[in-house]
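From the pipeline queue, job 12 of 40. The input is one protein chain; the requested action is below.

Action: predict structure.
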Amino acid sequence: MTLTIGDTAPDFEADTTEGRIRFHDWIGDSWAVLFSHPRDFTPVCTTELGYMAKIKPDFDRRDVKIIGLSVDPLDNHVSWAQDIADTQGAAPNYPMIADTDFAVSKAYGMLPADAAGDPTDRTPAQNATLRNVFVIGPDKTIKLMLIYPMTIGRNFDEVLRVIDALQLAATHKIATPAQWRQGDDVIIAGSVSDEEAHQIYPNGWHAPRPYLRIVPSPLSPA
């Protein structure tokens, strides 16, 4: 299955380290980040899971739930969590999906439809495409998709930055420029006419070009 931004995130039931869940019900009215891993006990993923545990409060403040995925069984997840705590200083404090039948991985287009067999017989290289990040909104649609190679650690600070921009755009008719950070100026969305923009921004805007209308962020300090 090929997914893209704007598609409904496939719903599923799965066993996790925090019990069995139905994904859409688990998300509820929150945002969610689903990030996948080729196998348990892999080096780069070990560092990522530990870092996510450390910055989970940053996701909590944004009303974003975190959930990981690997094809390993739950007992491996539990053992791996101890390794992560020992080497990274923090164990996963969010659920990890045990996708032992590859159902979730296939539904999200991360593994081919013919993937089968004992998941613990597969090498990490066979699951190299399980290096995805999906940001999913409260409406259960996919807002962001990232895919990383096995050798490159993911930048979850960037995921937080994008979530800030997505949440701002969801509540205001704006877009964000390159390298945007919370509090920086924003761009009036192209779908907003000048007439409507004058109602929203009565003090006007800076426009180096008619299509590039720059205003202070609605969340900037007064």
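Job complete. The domain at 13-154 is CATH 3.40.30.10 (Glutaredoxin).
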